[in-house]
């Protein structure tokens, strides 16, 4: 029997962890018990900002990785999450990532030492705020908003004071008034208990990027038999499907909770267009800036824009 450790910063009850457990059950069933996954939950092994390095160094065999929080070495993986305008569904987000990764070898270079086992996308987020009601983009002026890296310049251009911090720290920051709000999908109202510390949801359709989210130490991968590697390859689609299902279920539960406890404010058409234009402008600027690191970010950006042949429809390179 082969035993592999799996580490996650989340507790076993979290939607991400439920998807992880679906994957584990598939591995055990498909291997007829010859591969056993030993989970280690709640951040007992992996950190948010060093998870990729920790997996590379064998802290765990497999783990949840967070390239967007990694300190150094993931310039393109962080930046490409800002290229997804129009990829509204999780399936189109994953497809778009794979289109870009197929043409730009930097994706693989930044994952060196790791075997990628799952990509993750998500339901489109909006902006949750505590005591400050946001009815339009103009109301973001001066608000301290937690946001992912690719949205920081967009929000600055709108007059907000954006910050980037791990999601595990957001509840406390909201409760203490350290931040005024967070860019987050509805599922966080329940899964991260944001419904307890927020009052308003500005339903702006904010693009969401796909990113590598589960990976294995490459040395461990190479030590497995051909049969074991084949099972893990087969499990990629299972894991990604489980993550998508849990994400959508959690979003539905969050929306149901919001109906009772949160004031939902829809964004008007003008604000949505203004935000989309800013998002694409900053995405292209960030892609060009990657040349400072010797990375052709524009190759990935152009591939993303060409591959979205219409809203939520992806064909790599625009091919028919």
Features of the shown structure:
single chain, 320 residues, 12 helices, globular, 43% helix, alpha/beta
Note down, in words, how this protein is organized.
With 320 residues, the protein is an alpha/beta fold. The protein contains twelve helices and 13 strands. A six-stranded mixed beta sheet has the order 7-6-8-5-9-11. α1 (15-30) runs antiparallel to α10 (226-261), α4 (90-103) packs across α12 and α11 runs antiparallel to α12. It is globular and about 60 Å long. The termini are far apart. The mean pLDDT is 94.
Quick recap:
With 320 residues, the chain is an alpha/beta fold. 43% of the residues lie in helices and 18% in strands.
Terminal CA distance reads 46 Å
Total DSSP helices: 12
Overall average residue pLDDT: 94
Strand order of the largest sheet: 7-6-8-5-9-11
Poorly predicted regions are none
Rg over CA atoms: 19 Å
Share of residues in strands: 15-25%
Number of strands: 13
Assembly form of the protein: single chain
The amount of helix comes to: 40-55%
The SS-based structural class is alpha/beta
Instruction: State the shape.
Output: globular
How do the SSEs run, as a string of H and E?
EHEHEHHHEEEHEHEHEEHHEHHEE
Described by strand count, sense and barrel closure, the largest sheet is: 6 strands, mixed
What topology does this entry show?
Layout: E1 2-7, H1 15-30, E2 35-40, H2 51-56, E3 62-64, H3 75-79, H4 90-103, H5 106-110, E4 114-120, E5 126-129, E6 144-146, H6 152-157, E7 161-163, H7 170-176, E8 181-184, H8 188-191, E9 200-203, E10 211-217, H9 218-223, H10 226-261, E11 263-266, H11 269-289, H12 297-307, E12 308-310, E13 313-314
Parallel strand pairs: 1-2, 1-3, 6-7, 6-8, 9-11
Antiparallel strand pairs: 3-10, 4-10, 5-8, 5-9, 12-13
